[in-house]
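Next comes this protein:
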Amino acid sequence: MKTIEIQLFKFSELSEDAQKKAIEKLSDINVDYDWWEVIYEDAENIGLKITEFDLYRMSIDGNFNLSAAEVAQNILNEHGEMCETYKTAENFLNEFNPVFAEYMETEEGEDKLIDLESDFLNSLLEDYRIMLQKDFDYLTSEEAIIETIEANDYDFTANGELY
């Protein structure tokens, strides 16, 4: 029989080089699951369905589950005034109301309304893409990785390998 003793360290006990190695090895610890679900759920709650996104290509796709006006009103009811989605919805409604009145009277109004709703969808999707990017950037930051390591009380070998 053979007995092997291993010294284990908490993250804070590691050398600076070992800490850097541990952070590098665990760089995806906070994004190795469906980390975007909370943002998707928020979008669903206001009537927007995000169908896909690609942060590397800076693209996002989705559609409304409700009318554009209902989505905008939901945002005003659910999101704070400091939120970009709130500003986007407020701008849309400020433009929408006069165009909607015109829509009732002319074909040109209908075209303006369709363009306005399309612009609102694209702007809102861009707001959500930015939210996703910011969340991803935070989750993969050194600060967030260290928080996760410490919150989970991980043990490491002297060279920074997770035990």
Remarks:
- The chain has a mean pLDDT of 93.
- The radius of gyration is 24 Å.
- The first helix runs from residue 16 to 25.
